[in-house]
Write a structure and sequence with these properties.
Layout (H helix, E strand, L loop, with lengths): L11 E6 L3 E6 L5 E4 L2 E4 L11 E4 L5 E4 L1 H15 L30 H9 L4 H11 L8 H15 L2 E5 L3 H11 L9 H11 L7 E5 L5 H10 L4 E6 L7 H6 L2 H4 L2 E5 H24 L1
Parallel strand pairs: 8-9, 9-10
Antiparallel strand pairs: 1-2, 1-7, 3-4, 5-6, 5-7
Length: 287
């Protein structure tokens, strides 16, 4: 969704590229990043709103796609995909199926070099899909569902668009869940929201203890919700903390509220406290 906040230099943004490829990138003015297999300067995104969608051209430029353009394109696609109304006087169309189709890469007349030439000449995704549809000798024999699936797959492959999103707690959780859900114990975004609702952290100088087994995602969400106030004691299983999500999501003030403590230290804390109390009692008795 489009937001009013603008992208600034040093922000960590979330790229959702065509073809379901996703990545986190730090915006720097004099740095390039590979977007849709094209090396583009990231300085072009500074001053653009979060949630905007851009088309990637072969001259390494990002052109913002306005909402009116997207609506017109979707309307044209809907009109072209809507079949004409049938009347009882029209004969029934012959049913098609895929039983005799063989996927041997011989049914497409268009070669990879032809598609590359079209892209270099500035052809858009719709023109490439039209050429692929015309060059396929088996497209007309496919079922309607198979035709839509074919166009959708080819569109995701040859479309060069990227949407820039702000890395919120929900976006971060969904990214983990879609790529490697085992890293966050298969926790969905709604489960994380319910967890935050039950804990009810706030910027009121709270002191919380968390044992995070979800790659630091719960710790980052709690610190972000606390707003840079209070203290968040994060118990560590190993020797070094896992703070990747926190560095993406939290501000420097919110990062300073996180205090990483090894679990071994917490396990020895009661014994240490009891020994200190016994020593103090012995000293007082002797005196």
């Amino acid at each position: 969704f489009m937001t009013t906040r603008l992208i600034e230099e040093g922000d960590t943004v979330y790229f959702r590229q065509s073809g379901e490829k996703e990545s986190f990138v730090v915006i720097k003015r004099n740095t390039d990043a590979r977007i849709c297999k094209v090396l583009c300067p990231l300085g072009q995104l500074i001053g653009q709103p979060y949630g905007a969608t851009f088309s990637v051209s072969t001259d390494h430029r990002l052109r913002r796609i306005l909402l009116e353009d997207k609506l017109n394109e979707e309307q044209e696609d809907g009109e072209s995909a809507t079949p004409p109304p049938t009347t009882p006087a029209q004969p029934l169309q012959k049913l098609t199926d895929n039983r005799n189709l063989v996927d041997d890469n011989r049914s497409q007349k268009l070669t990879a070099d032809d598609i590359k030439t079209m892209k270099e000449q500035g052809a858009d995704t719709r023109s490439i899909l039209g050429a692929l549809q015309s060059g396929s000798t088996t497209f007309a024999q496919k079922t309607e569902f198979a035709q839509k699936k074919y166009l959708m797959r080819k569109g995701a492959k040859h479309s060069k668009t990227v949407t820039v999103l702000e890395p919120t707690v929900e976006v971060l959780c969904r990214s983990y869940f879609e790529k490697k859900p085992e890293k966050i114990c298969c926790m969905r975004a709604d489960v994380l929201a319910e967890l935050l609702n039950r804990v009810n952290p706030s910027a009121r100088g709270m002191r919380l203890l968390v044992c995070d087994q979800c790659s630091g995602l719960v710790t980052a969400a709690l610190a972000h919700r606390m707003g840079g106030q209070g203290t968040l004691y994060a118990a560590m299983m190993g020797r070094s903390p896992i703070d990747g999500p926190a560095r993406i999501l939290c501000t420097p003030a919110e990062l300073r509220t996180i205090m990483h403590i090894p679990l071994a230290f917490l396990a020895d804390a009661p014994t240490t406290a009891a020994a200190a109390t016994t020593a103090a009692t012995t000293t007082t008795t002797t005196t």
